[in-house]
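Researcher: Here's a chain I'd like modeled. Treat it as a single chain, no partners, no ligands.
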Amino acid sequence: MPVGRRGAWLADQLRRAIADGRLPPGARLPASRVLAAELGASRGLVTEAYQRLSEDGHVAGRGRRGTVVVAGLLHPAVPPPPARPAHPARPAAGPGAAATAELLLSRPGAGIFDAMRAAPARIDLSPGLPDLAAFPRAAWLRAERAVLASLAPADLAYGDPHGTPALRQAVARWLASTRGIPARPDEVIIVAGVSQGLGLLAQVLRRDGIETVAVEEPGSLGVRQHLQAGGLDTPPVAVDAAGLRVDDLRATGAPAVMVTPAHQFPAGVVLDGPRRRELARWAPRRRAGHRG
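Model: Modeled as a single isolated chain. Structure tokens:
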């Protein structure tokens, strides 16, 4: 068998092991020299197979950790789709197809994320699911050791609920140097994540008498759900190629809006210059109207 075909055969065997869970995400493949010795083959053959898997996105080099599995089938029991005939007929929709169609076409509810992640899928592109196998464990441990070695005993007690003063000062400096936003450390609050930040924001807005926050459409369902859980109404505002439509925002009468000026999810658009200036003119008027 030619070397190229043997490399393809070995890559296919490794793919099968990844698919059926024998090599789960995070598993480290044997060093190419070790596997070549076990197979009685050349090291170049193993290197070629690993390269094929890397190009497919199944494995990735992790430096001293070697070659690591980074992607696998979440539901290996699901059979592959049958090959399409030359003139395919429209198949009858079974119960599974009907359920999937209903899931995709119905209006999203509170359990949409759990329902989508429970659906059989060969490749899961759900938002909010990072590549956990790529977590920098070694760098994280080095940073922890460096910090723990310099901490005083008092630093291990309960800290300031607003966040560690040194971290808040670092954030304030970063805002000034990279965003041009002047902020004092006492104006910075460190939160555990977006969920906590939105929850605190909802409390502050409601305490100030604001009960409606417009959101982008399409936009993050999670953001909308967190704001609604905080007791806020969330009227949708359309997003086009230039970003949030401020004219549609005015039509809602909302006194506040949640907007992502860059890397908008899921459209990926950026709020352009004219639209930003229009939004900046809208904001003080809404604030003045609310106070009046």
